[in-house]
Design goal:
CATH architecture of the domain at 1-21 and 54-118 and 168-250: Roll
CATH superfamily of the domain at 1-21 and 54-118 and 168-250: Electron Transport, Fmn-binding Protein, Chain A
Order of helices and strands: EEEEHEEEHEHHEEEEEEEE
Structural class: mainly beta
CATH class of the domain at 1-21 and 54-118 and 168-250: Mainly Beta
Helix content: 10-25%
């Protein structure tokens, strides 16, 4: 799949509202979709002092998001690689936000941050390229996710070949560690459900969703999420940011069909 360009979208998972003191909130109907036009999430006036961004806030960059249906109920579909902090949060709290990012330098940096993680070996401990079974681990990692090293993300494990299909690596990520609440993200509260969803302030479109179905295939989970609200920060359409050939891109010129 490395020959295909994929949309790079950022997922963030909900936390219990009891952990937040942020002031921004959105109330939506559980049974219908609403759309907020030309607005951005309001910066919080108060920090969420009960939250440890590293322990409590989770998310990942996905290249697998697609529309499952629009009518009668809008659903999005995506998959993720296990183990995953975000998977645990989705199972526990159900709600999430999926962000369509504009094709900017800031978005590319954000997508990289949310793609960083800790690679686990077959024993469930941190993977290192010096391990005797390192090549076997790579061979079994057939989804070709982006790998990490101490200097940041690299596209293949050092000194080993990798059948890279262009997907993101997102195991055990803690992307909120260096983000600042009110500047980089804020919270959308669903008081009726007792949860708050962290949302990125510079996203082009935010889909707030409730996870409704999931099933496991080997070391992956496939998730289906119902869209319950759409927040547009711009009336323009950029097509979002794309991931292709180990880098980020934007939609180019249209191709004539004549």
């Amino acid at each position: 799949m490395s020959r295909l360009a994929s949309p790079a979208m950022v997922l963030t998972s909900a936390v219990p509202m009891s952990k937040t003191t942020a002031s921004s909130s959105t109330t939506t109907n559980n049974n219908s979709i609403t759309e907020t036009g030309s607005t951005s999430p309001a910066p919080s006036n108060q920090s969420s002092h009960h939250i440890d961004p590293k322990q409590d806030l989770h998310g990942m960059t996905l290249s697998s998001v697609c529309s499952l249906s629009v009518y009668p109920t809008p659903y999005l579909e995506f998959n993720l690689h296990l183990p995953s902090y975000t998977s645990t949060a989705l199972h526990n709290h159900k709600y999430l936000a999926i962000h369509l990012m504009p094709p900017t330098h800031q978005s590319a940096k954000t997508c990289r941050v949310f793609a960083k993680g800790v690679k686990l070996n077959k024993r469930g401990t941190k993977w290192t390229s010096s391990e005797p079974d390192a090549k076997a681990v790579v061979a079994n990692d057939s989804d070709g996710d982006i790998k990490n090293d101490k200097n940041g993300i690299v596209d293949s494990c050092e000194n080993y070949d990798d059948d890279d299909d262009g997907e993101f690596f997102h195991e055990m990520t803690t992307p909120f560690t260096d983000l600042v609440e009110g500047r980089d993200y804020t919270f959308i509260k669903r008081e009726q459900d007792g949860i708050a969803i962290p949302v990125l302030t510079h996203a082009e479109v935010i889909f707030t969703c409730k996870a409704t179905h999931n099933f496991t295939i080997d070391d992956h989970e496939i998730w289906v999420a119902q869209v319950i609200d759409i927040i547009n920060s711009s009336t323009g359409k950029t097509g979002g940011i794309l991931y292709f050939n180990k880098g980020f891109h934007k939609v180019g010129e249209s191709i004539s069909e004549e």
